[in-house]
Every structure is written in structure tokens, then in C-alpha cells.
Amino acid sequence: MKKQPHIILKNIFGYDNFRPLQEQIINRTIEGKDSFVLMPTGGGKSMCFQIPALIFDGITIVVSPLISLMKDQVQALKSNGIKADFFNSSISTKEENEVITKAINGDLQLLYLSPEKLISVSNTWLKQLNIKLVAIDEAHCVSMWGHDFRPEYTQLKTFRNSLPNVPFMALTATADKSARKDIETQLGLSNSKLFISSFDRKNLSIEVRGQVAKKKKLQEIVSFIKRRKNESGIIYCLSRKNTEEVASFLKADGHSVAFYHAGMTFDEREQTQTDFINDDLKIVVATIAFGMGIDKSNVRFVIHYNLPKNLEGYYQEIGRAGRDGLPSETVLYYNMRDFVLYSQFADDGANTAMQKEKLNRMLQFAEAKSCRRKILLSYFGEHLTENCGNCDVCENPPKDFDGTILSQKALSGIARMKEKDGITMLINVLRGSNNADIHSKQYFTLKTYGIGKDVSFFDWRDYVIQMANQGLIEIMYAESSALKITPIGWQVLKGEKTIRLTTPIAAADKKKAQKTLKIATEGEVNKDLFTELKKIRLAIAKEENMPAYIVFSDKSLKLMASELPTTENEFLAISGVGMNKMEKYGEEFMSVIRPFKNVAKPRKTPTTIKTYNLYKEGLNPKEISENRGLSITTIFSHLSQLYMEGKKVDLEKLVAKEVVDKVRVVFNEFDRKIELKPIYEKLNEQVSYGEIRLSITLILKNE
Description:
CATH topology of the largest domain: Rossmann fold
Oligomer: single chain
CATH class of the largest domain: Alpha Beta
Distance between the termini: 31 Å
CATH architecture of the largest domain: 3-Layer(aba) Sandwich
């Protein structure tokens, strides 16, 4: 009998429930069928192939272009007691031979390879392996339409054809419709089913700040970081020079920060990435090359110092924040200079028309005056019915007004300047500025000179950009960004058409709502305990030479600091705690939790009674678990305790009689010791810990 996916999910990885679509993808893979998985960054793609890998009696090959991700995922798998390794250019010949020997001898369940390495060994030792599944991660790299095309990926079709009866799974976080079709063709997927998960990362707040001067932008970023002391973040910049400038500015202000770009040596980049992953470095200022494949779960903010060149890249980059599901923030700064620069890059590159179209969509998103998440998700084919309430537009809805006269003033200025100048000159004329350029061009003699001096420079710039977005004017980038009036603009200027504009919102007026996503409903997180738990986690991570978040995520630590688990059962009930981690780290963490639990104020209503009240209302354990925001293992534990206390709980309905009988036999074999793992292993991992616990309760109570 095969191991059950949901049992592996809980007992190995420590989670009670699958995320949307994961279980369907896993079941299809177990049936031997191809799948195409389109899931957002942080959406749980890896679990889709890792669980089948633990069910299959053989090896799963994972193809990934990202060396850092391989190392990260293999460490995380090993920490959960799974046999995994990687094979890429970062390891020595001796290490290569060790990996090959383990793979051939059947001592690996998962093997990660770079596409180059896979191609080079596909006709040698790889042919000796009992391959049961192949997962192609970052599958968009195979498509010319993808934003990160890699030629070596196109050779994977030959490998696919050599294993006609092995299921293949293509996984990516970013692929539009044209890229999806191309991926299926290029990889030679056979009757694959497309699974598209929701791209809505509700825990990420979205804010956009336009036309902010460089000095002010740096000041805002410093203030932002100071309010989030000791939190991890990434700042993305357009150029190498920007990354060094911003990092230097933040470092001078006393922050733990480093830059990262392609001009550094491999060793320098590797060190920066390692320091960031291990929490020795809090902030990285980087070009977009940074972060691909980093599975760091506790990045709390992502800032874009410049406009990204497309929504796919932007979405993937903000997706590096909040992978643990906790509230995280994203801020995008942009100005028209970024847009002009990218337009010039597009003119010099391949697929010019497509790149420019994607760039225009990016600018439309940045300039939007409606819910940003709606716009972002609609780009990926997903449509929200309600506004998200977690973006700057939703939090501060723009107020619109009749902007006809204001627009006419600007349009009149453009016309009188013979449509030869850009935004800055127009605004200086409207505001009546007294500078050399205006005097040299005699613009101070124009009727429009000074007619808009009651409006600030920054507000004028916002209004002019809105006019461009509404089609009143065009910005001619090839003509030094000169402004030209469109037919609609002439209609407005002549009074034949009215126009509405929105009032710009100053940064100081933005009321940033505090995000309080439901992490744990059982009382507040004890901040002192959370700090102590982070210290232990860091010490273990240093000792074992692995990132701290692989030991336990911030989410798991916050649950510990809220639930205060002090027994094996309670600790196993924490999300993210599997049996392997319980055995390795449980006692060390619980020894720190116990003193806090001893002095904790008793809850007004005992947690077991809250469960009992819901049980009496007719809710089943799964429904109680969802209602209370607790794991189903915890709910089983509560019901067992209530049963032992004599409360009316029908345990017999919650666990099958044949399961109780199986547990009884093994329980007696082990001299009736209440230790779950030996019983679990003896039963070939077929019975969950929750069912074992309920069975033992019934056995002891009914004697």
C-alpha cells in the first residue's frame, strides 16, 4: 500500500492542509501523467513534486537553473530527514562522484541538476537510475516569449523523449498565454494538464510612489527601514551604480546592508547571498539578478528603486517577500526617466514591439488610480470582484475633480511653446519660474507664463502625467521627450470636451493601515519569547551551517510564542513542525518556552473548552481547525483530553475501528509506551499521528 500524501504532508513537513491545487497535482503525478504548474512565487510549487518523490520507489530528477535554489531546497529537505542532493558546477569532482554513487545505489529520493549538467550526463550514469518523475523548475526559461530565456533549456525535449513513460512536471511562476503554449511544445509534454493557482498574495501590501526626487526618495527609504529595525529586505535598482550608491547611503546611516550586481566576482556575490540567507546581513540592494531561487521565507519588504520593465518581473520580485505568509510590504518608486531608458533598451534589443507593450502595461500599473491588485492579477488572467484593501489606492482612494481648466492651462502652454519642450520646461513656464532657459527662449512673454503658480511643481507633474495617460498629450521620447497635443487634447483645449483629474496624495497624508493577518487566534504573540526563540534558532543554524528559516520559519516561531507548546503533542501541532524536527530541536525550544508558560496569564476560557463548544455545535475536527486557526493535530489532542475528562466526545466516530486495532497491536508490542513515532514507523507510515493519538486514548479509556 502506497504512503498517503496528506500523511507525508503532516508527518514530514509539519503542515495540516494542502494549499489550493497541490493535492490534485500530486495525485495526477502519482497516476503517471504530465502536468504544467503555474503558481506564484511562494505559492508552494516545490511540494507538488517533493511529495510524489517520497511516494515513488525510485528517484525524482529536478531540473533547475538556479544553483542557490538547489542548495537551499536540498538543505531544507535534509532537515526534514529526506534523502536529497544536487549536482551542478559548484561542487568538486570528488563531490560529484559521491553524488553519482548515492544516486546509482538508490540512496537518493531527489536529485537536483542544472540543465547543462543534465544534458552532459543524460547518456552516461543517468541512464542507470530508476527515474520515476522529472520536474522542470523555472520552466519559462525554455520559451523565447519568457522573460528569462535560456538556450540550454531547449535541449530538455530530447531528455523527455528518452523517458516516454515517466511523468514530467513543468513549473513556473510567470508565463503568459503565448509562453505557456511554447513551454508545452518545447518540453514535449504529453497530454499535460494546466494547473493555475491564484496569484493573489494577500499578505503583500502594494504601494507605488511616482515622480519622487532622488534625495527625497533616499530619505523616505531610510525612514521606512528605521521603522522596521532588524527586518530583512531587498531593494531593487536599475543599474549597478544605483545599487552601490543606495547601499553606501544606507550603510552610512548605520544599517546592515550590501550591494549585489553582475560586476562583482562570483565569490563576492556568493558571500553576499550567503550572508543574507543566514541573516548576517539584513538588506541587499541589488539589480534584478538577485533573489532568483532564494527560498528565504522571512523577507519582510521589497522596494523597487526604479520602474521594473514588465509586470512579470515585478510580480516575481515582490513575491520574494512574505513567503512564510506573514504580512510584508512592497514599495515601487518610478519616474519617467526610467520609462525612457527602458524604451531605449527595447529599441536596441530583440522582440522590440513586445517589450514596449509590456513596458507600457508596467507604466499603466504604476500610474493607476484604481485597486492595484486588481490590475496586477488581471494581467495574469485572474479577476478580483472586490477591491483588495491592501494597496495604497484602496487605503487612500483618490478624489477626482473637474480638471478641464487646469488641463487647458497646460495644453495652452504646450501649444504656445510650439510643442517643442518637455514636462519640466512646461511646468516652469506655468509656474512663472525665473531661470536662464525661460529667458533665452523668451517664454516669459507667453500669455501662459505664471498662470499656474498656485499649483506646486510636483502636483503639476502629476496632472501632466494624468493627461498623458488619458490621451490628451503624447510624450515624444525620440524628440527629447517633447510634449505633443493629441486630437483629444485639442478638443479639451477648445472647450469641446471636459476632463476629470485626481488629486495627488502626498506621502505624509498616506495613512498606512496596520496589517493584522490571522497568524494564530490563540492569544497574543509573546514578543520576549519570540526574541528568545529566534536566538536559539540562530545558534542552531550557525552550528549546522544552514539558513535560520530552514530550522523553523518566523511563522512557526510566532505560533510557538503564542501557543506555548511544552509537550511533544503540542509541539507537533505547530505548523511547520514535522517529526524529524520535533526529535532534533523540540526539547531545546520547549525548555525555553516552559518558563514563559509558567508565568503566562491563564486564558479566560480554556482552549480545550473553546474546541468543545464548537464540537457541541456539530462542527467536525477539520471545521473546528479552520474556525480556530489551529492545526487539526491540536484539535485531535483537545478532543482526546476532553474524552479522558469525561466530556461527551464520540471518539469512535473520528477514527476507524480497524485503525484502533492496528495501533493496539503495535502499542502492546512497544510495552504500551506513549511514543508516537515508533508506532507510526511500525505501521509503515500509513496512520497519521492524530489517528494514533486518538486510538491510544480509546485503548486506555476502554480497558
